[in-house]
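re: that chain from earlier
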Amino acid sequence: MGELFRSEEMTLAQLFLQSEAAYCCVSELGELGKVQFRDLNPDVNVFQRKFVNEVRRCEEMDRKLRFVEKEIKKASIPILDTGENPEVPFPRDMIDLEANFEKIENELKEINTNQEALKRNFLELTELKYILRKTQQFFDEAQFHHHQQMADPDLLEESSSLLEPSEIGRGAPLRLGFVAGVINRERIPTFERMLWRVCRGNVFLRQAEIENPLEDPVTSDSVHKSVFIIFFQGDQLKNRVKKICEGFRASLYPCPETPQERKEMAAGVNTRIDDLQMVLNQTEDHRQRVLQAAAKTIRVWFIKVRKMKAIYHTLNLCNIDVTQKCLIAEVWCPVADLDSIQFALRRGTEHSGSTVPSILNRMQTNQTPPTYNKTNKFTYGFQNLVDAYGISTYREINPAPYTIITFPFLFAVMFGDFGHGILMTLFAVWMVIRESRILSQKTDNELFNMVFSGRYIILLMGAFSIYTGLIYNDCFSKALNIFGSSWSVRPMFTSPKANWTEDLLRHVPVLQLDPDVNGVFNGPYPFGIDPIWSIATNKLTFLNSYKMKMSVVVGIIHMLFGVTLSLLNHIYFKKPLNIYLGFIPEMIFMASLFGYLVILVLYKWCAYDAATSKSAPSLLIHFINMFLFNYTDKSLPMLYSGQKGLQCFLVVCAILCVPWMLVVKPFILRHQYLRRKHLGTHNFGGIRVGNGPTEEDAEIIQHDQLSMHSEEGEEPAVEEVFNFGDVVVHQAIHTIEYCLGCISNTASYLRLWALSLAHAQLSEVLWTMVMHLGLNVKNLGGGILLVFVFAAFSTLTIAILLIMEGLSAFLHALRLHWVEFQNKFFGGTGFKFLPFSFETIREGRFDD
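^ sequence. v structure.
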């Protein structure tokens, strides 16, 4: 468990890989996932690197696979995921993969092209079928009206425009032409207006909707269309009509003039449609077979191609030896995993058939290694909480193990409710029990994935909330009377203070209990808060005082623990100055002021009982007077003997700690620097060649810096630079921040009280305003009403108290850890260890 408290010890290593074995060695390292490659060619353009062509070929294969995947999803075919982790193909297998993907892509493209052409023909024939059917209806209606109107000569001329040209008498003065076509239904109104305006009312338009929607051959969407027929006279109008139809993207079709020709054409069209439908069905069956075959193996293909691409991208980070027979790589890796890395290199060399072994050589460097904190499925969520604020500085104390306990506890102090805690715990237990099934489903819901990744955090938050809920004796705003109240009200007392009768108890709604009367108070409640407080009118006054003091006590202990952790950092990094001039005065300052306040709170709780509680002095007044050295008010009794002398001593100690932190350290650092500078000059006979290393050493260091480019882009200077002004300012900022922070951070922990109060009051309001409605009605209707009221109560409880209040308490607990706790010992200036690993590819997160 030691690695949980500090990040892993890291080392910089050099890998010498034979050219023929490099691919297999990097493949094995990717499966292992324990090394982070450094870019040794930062100045070389991406397109000028050695393996750029292989990367391009892999990208091209990836593009083809994405095209096939899109077609599979479009056809709603499920992609088989067996969880298989295929081995990386050899470079020589790339040609076969490329040929296979090329064949599938070309086959699909050909099928799509043919299918689109067939669908276009099918659409045209279907539209023509509807045109022939609808125009025949138009002409039949017109002929019917014509026969009706023969008896009335005045109407003959009006109806002649609807007759077929062939059916107008030989002596008829008019010869009408017409065009028929199909147009999108939503364009009909504007199409009709445009025809009327351009042709000045000299055309006649008839239109009818096609009942069944037609399929667009390109997008496969359903489109609603209408058939239209336009009658006109003369070529000029004919040209105008055709131009308007073209502008509105209407499809015009040839329509015979006689009924017989129309009938024959319709029969031919129907035959062709049937034949075309059969061909379309065969084409779709063939396409489904191709896609179903691809769906079985596309996940494995994706993994293979993306693993190859990742390997070639990594090989591009390496240096090529001048002999072109060896690749040189530099990697960060954990010292504890060096043996497994050696085995992986050996496996890769054997796999490639190379006879020359790969070499791993540890290097000495002055660069800061990356931070690597090993996690498991339980600690992963808590480590993420810490890393969201900042990555730990290399090898400093990791806050995550302490956060595992303190984070759910501080959350539960704010959220404390037995009932809500049970609901939260049950939800977390459900996620934990079904975690393997949920992981295998790989849902894309980002919100659920985020909640699921923190399932163990939610489990502990719920369990701790059950505990604090029992302490607060709060369950859905109701108190649990488990042990029976320690307060008792009896009909008659011998004491003159409590002359209560049976009748009085029945008719007076509020009674005041005096704990100083024997028989009224039977000692403290065994666990938590006495249930009688839930019906007391001064419940808020009592709980506010209790929770406020409790928040201060918890907060100061939490901060003192954070300061103590900084001692472990100073000891590990061998910085005695920081212990004597940092940790010790910081601890004395906080303990003498705020640690003393905690002791006062605990002392007052223990020192005063029911009989003496009325004479208990105010801690707030005492604490303010302590800072002001004000002890003149004789009406304010002291808490204990010797209080004045002890408090004066503690305040003086705290005041002396300020210059101790502020002044001493800069002067000692300056003295050490001048001493080193004097010794460096003395050793070279009075000739200064540098404040640090010799010229030879400087050249070695400079060469080392040039060959190893830092991840953070640092350029460490050879000469030691000391700026006294900067050190003074830095120390002043740190001292002021710490001293003021002790006050502001202590006040910040009062959010524990405020959030706890808000949660309890919201819960009570919800019960009173909602659940109470259903419980008030005392008949059968009340029982039916209670079902609906309880549904509303449950919904509001989950939405407001569990989700919104839970999220609020979560964020406040997070802030207390990030700001109030971690700033006492946590630097957070590191950068994360990002090993070269195939894990994300295996899990199907291809885009990462």
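The first strand starts at residue 10 and ends at 18.
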